[in-house]
Design brief:
With about 110 residues, the protein is an alpha+beta fold. The protein has a single domain, classed as Glutaredoxin. It is about 55% helix and about 15% strand. It has five helices and four strands, in the order αβαβαββαα. The protein has a four-stranded mixed sheet. A hairpin with a 2-residue loop joins strand 3 (about 75-80) and strand 4. Helix 2 runs parallel beside helix 4. The N and C termini lie far apart (about 35 Å). About 30% of the residues are buried.
């Protein structure tokens, strides 16, 4: 069960950052191919984003699965909304929709 403290922490991270990536590793050193692919896409968009390394915090890793009802990582949030994981981000990027979503979020 998601603790109130952890839920508050997650909500704060998502609300305080227009783009929030929950990844394995860091943007400088992703620890799985899916996280690396997502970081590469967001780096290519040239907009600021924040990230949390779910490998450093087991409570966060388990809590994110419950919070989003999404069992795998990475998990991407844009403008406070859960977007999905690597496959969804790649599809949105290939269709040109991800850049638009990011631009709209940054502009707010």
């Amino acid at each position: 069960m998601l603790s109130p403290i952890l839920e508050t922490k997650i909500k704060s991270q998502i609300q305080d950052n227009k783009i929030m990536l929950y990844i394995k590793g860091t943007p400088q050193q992703p620890m799985c191919g899916f996280s690396a692919a997502v970081v590469q896409v967001f780096n290519s968009l040239g907009q600021p984003y924040d990230s949390a390394n779910i490998l450093e915090d087991n409570d966060l890793r388990q809590g994110m699965k419950e919070f989003s009802s999404w069992p795998t990582f990475p998990q991407i949030y844009i403008d406070g909304e859960f977007v999905g994981g690597c496959d969804i981000v790649m599809e949105l990027n290939n269709r040109g929709e991800l850049a638009q979503m990011v631009q709209e979020a940054i502009a707010k």
